[in-house]
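Working notes for the structural subgroup meeting. M.R. asked for a predicted model of this chain before we commit to crystallization trials. I am recording the input and output together here so anyone reviewing the notebook later can reproduce the run.

Input as submitted:
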Amino acid sequence: MGNVQNIVKSIQDIMRKDAGVDGDAQRIGQLVWMLFLKIFDDHEANLELIDPAYQSPLPEALRWRSWAANPEGITGDVLQKFIDEKLFPTLKSLEVAVDNTQAAVVRSVFADTYNYMKNGTLMRQVVNKINEINFNKKTDRHQFGDLYERILKDLQSAGNAGEFYTPRPLTQFVVDMVDPKLGERVLDPACGTGGFLVSALEHMRKGVKTAKQERELQAELRGVELKQLPHLLAMTNLMLHDVEDPTIITRGDMLGRPLTEYGPKDRVDVIVANPPFGGVVADGAQSNFPKKFQTKETALLFLVLFIHLLREGGRAGVVLPDGALFGEGVAAEIKKDLLEKCNVHTIVRLPQGVFNPYAGVNTNLVFFEKGTPTKEVWYYEMELPEGLRQYTKGRPIMHAEFEPIKKWWGGPARAARKASPRAYSVPIADIVARNYNLDFKNPNGPAAAEHKTPKELVIDSLRKEQEILALLQNIDPQQ
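Returned structure, recorded in token form:
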């Protein structure tokens, strides 16, 4: 890891000297478009070995090897002018033939990408550092894949409510439990940097035996992302994981179309997602949904969309905030619809700080299958490691911490589940009686108070005050 990690650290140090780059988001955006062109060029070099007749969709002068590969190549004002006046304008308007996947990839990446650096000399230094990584070399590629995860994590401070990055151990756990299989269509409608899709890709690749199966697998993955920077990161992330056509991730807003416009051709077998929460939807988006489901809470609208998009028998594993579990009004209507149309079989209550630095937002993993109504919901209260008060950037959630839940899960049929200090079940009648409130405290464990509703916490507080007053009244002041 050392060599590639040092290269990327050097690149970031160089960028900090450039007056045009302001903050983590711009620095990472700048780094990623440059890395994309290097990765693309290494990818093309590999294609040329396989097929000597391969033709690049890029004009020869704009290929990385032509302007960037020579360490003594153009620099300073000449390089700056070339990038701003030739490279970017041409790639943004690149001609795309119907059957030219490579051209479509490049144009899609550069459609809303910007060059923030203003110093051509510093840019040459960055380019030369990037050239030290060979993405066709297994060790470099593997090291950079690990490092790329760290780059994505750095974006947490530049996003809202963890929208850019979902921890890899969490995406892998969700995918492992939902268990997508070859031949199934997998969708993440708010895919961020592509973490869930990469986890699904790697999970499903375990069953791939032929090149034909690999092509079929990649053709069944779908992602949609609204914002430019995470979209760019997601496309690059897929390329790093050997996806031939990363345009399976498109730019768009899936809440921006009327729900009725999504028909049978849009249905999918599996949805894995961490939809944005706590945000307000775009103007007019609420009106795309039936009146009883109209809300400004993005997570709830996405939940309505998930239910609609799943085929009968389809499965989902999604991240939802506590507010979605105990919400009243429209939230209750949405949960009623969910519980009647789907079997919400498991809710994993996550510990504090999983989406650090947004540690104040309590979150849950909600698993459901469409086609049969819910009879009971199993809850599992995930435990923090001993001595840890909450997860932090320096001590994030780890793969091993999901192992106890996997052992408890009970296999594909979930038949062997048992109540424990961490696990408990609630029958649907109890949920209905509480107006579809899914925020049930753990009756078996000591940490129940962590998940009480605000109303319950106030009642508890008042009750304790009354008990204290009663005790004080019974105390003899002469004693």
